[in-house]
């Protein structure tokens, strides 16, 4: 289904009706494989419905890769995984042209890289070089790649889920702000509770990882169009814009922001807050976007867009602490 094609009213109603039952069905299926991580699941599902890229931060062993692969299976999406290493080259991601030679002719033939998929997992993205990280920029923003002067369109939908390890910084390359800003969410995965960890401990290693899919890629594109149709009142949009502007030291009236923030969130943060709040409202079955929908998604949208200065770091001010302060004061 082309990205820009409009769905007909009957398709609209059919997809919307199926979507009403989806949140319960989704949790039933995914919890056959994944234990706990309720909020993380909500955030990743919202990102899928927004066609937004996600940076997933968590220590090893929290089933990040399994979780993303299971999401792809639930929507019958093509899935590729890249293990990022320091020697990974841009061509290992986007693809390469080779000389194809036979008795009749010699010509260059393009071999697609793993980026030609629906859901791409870039595992430990901060372990690969800035040059290779930059190879994802065009794909994430423009849904296309350029190799040897030729431009190739990616399939729709195309979503990047990238993971990084927060505790092992040796031999890593922090993502530049320009690339961080292209991620809809920065989602942090925490350790499971004691009860959940006990359940994980007794799980069989040979347990089936099959799930029943409810939608396919074409359905997902229709749902993404439904997200764009969710009404949002002008005063809620104004509230979102003022919230984002309040993260910038030059525009904020909040003293810790003015004192401890180097750079605040850009315009793309306002766009992403609107998109994510609409998707959250749709999943909740609400007819319009409210401030509570925005409050729910705000930490994941803003966390990676606020840069704390050296004074703030010394006084243990973190982006999430500043966001919580903003949400308390922004009514």
List the topology elements.
Elements: H1 9-30, H2 38-50, E1 53-57, H3 64-74, E2 79-83, H4 90-94, E3 95-101, E4 106-112, E5 119-123, H5 130-142, E6 144-147, E7 150-153, E8 159-164, H6 177-180, E9 183-188, H7 194-201, H8 217-229, H9 234-245, H10 255-260, E10 261-263, H11 267-284, H12 291-302, E11 307-308, H13 310-314, H14 319-329
Parallel strand pairs: 1-8, 1-9, 2-5, 5-8
Antiparallel strand pairs: 3-4, 6-7, 10-11
Helix pairs in contact: 1-8, 2-11, 8-11, 9-11, 11-12, 12-14
How would you describe the overall organization of this protein?
The radius of gyration is 21 Å and the shape is globular. Mean pLDDT is 83; it is low at 1-5. Helices cover 46% and strands 16% of the residues. It is of the alpha/beta class and 331 residues long. The protein has a 5-stranded parallel β-sheet with strand order 2-5-8-1-9. It contains 14 helices and 11 strands.
Concise synopsis of the structure shown:
This protein has 331 residues and is an alpha/beta fold. It has helices at 9-30, 38-50, 64-74, 90-94, 130-142, 177-180, 194-201, 217-229, 234-245, 255-260, 267-284, 291-302, 310-314, 319-329, and strands spanning 53-57, 79-83, 95-101, 106-112, 119-123, 144-147, 150-153, 159-164, 183-188, 261-263, 307-308.
